[in-house]
Design a protein that fits this description.
alpha/beta, 6 strands, 4 helices, about 20% strand, single chain
C-alpha cells in the first residue's frame, strides 16, 4: 500500500460518505496558510472535510507540529480525519475533534471514528480558515478554465 493508495481511498470515501459533491486530491496551490490537504471535499451549507493520509506513526507525529494543527482555526476543514492503513492509528492517538479512516488490503476506506452523529455536517465541527478554502477552490477552478 502506498500514500497514493490512501489518498485515492480517502477521496472515494469523502465523495461517497462525506456529503461532499466535490473533492480535490493533493492540490498544490498558493494558499494563505501553506496547507496542502491530501483530500478536501466540499458540500453544501459551508461543509468541508479534510483528510490527511499517514503511512507511518512518525509522519503522523510530525504532522501535529504544523502551524495549522497547533492552531486548528487556521486550518481547513469543518470535519477533519486522519486516514491510515488498518490499525496504524487508534482513536486514542487522535487530536480532539478528529475522525479516523482505515484503509484495508482491498484499498477501501471505512470510518473507524467520527466526532458527530449521522452524515457529515457543519455541527460540532472545527472553526476553519474559510479564506484558505476559497483560495484552493479558486485554484482548482482556474486550472479547469485554463484547459478550455
Amino acid at each position: 500500500m502506498t500514500h497514493t493508495d490512501l489518498v485515492n481511498a480517502a477521496y472515494k470515501w469523502v465523495l461517497k460518505n462525506g456529503s461532499c459533491g466535490v473533492a480535490l486530491k493533493e492540490l498544490r496551490a498558493a494558499v494563505c496558510n501553506n496547507e496542502i490537504p491530501d483530500v478536501i471535499g466540499f458540500g453544501g451549507a459551508d461543509l468541508s472535510i479534510l483528510v490527511e493520509c499517514k503511512m507511518s506513526k512518525s509522519d503522523f507525529v510530525a504532522d501535529r507540529q504544523k502551524p495549522f494543527r497547533i492552531c486548528p482555526a487556521i486550518g481547513m476543514g469543518t470535519q477533519r480525519f486522519y486516514c491510515c492503513p488498518n490499525g496504524l492509528l487508534q482513536k486514542k492517538d487522535l487530536p480532539d475533534g478528529w475522525g479516523l479512516l482505515w484503509v484495508d488490503e482491498n484499498l477501501a476506506a471505512r470510518c473507524i471514528h467520527k466526532n458527530y452523529k449521522g452524515n457529515c455536517d457543519v455541527r460540532n465541527g472545527f472553526e476553519k480558515n474559510s479564506k484558505a478554502e476559497r483560495e484552493i477552490m479558486y485554484s482548482a477552478l482556474r486550472r479547469l478554465q485554463q484547459k478550455e
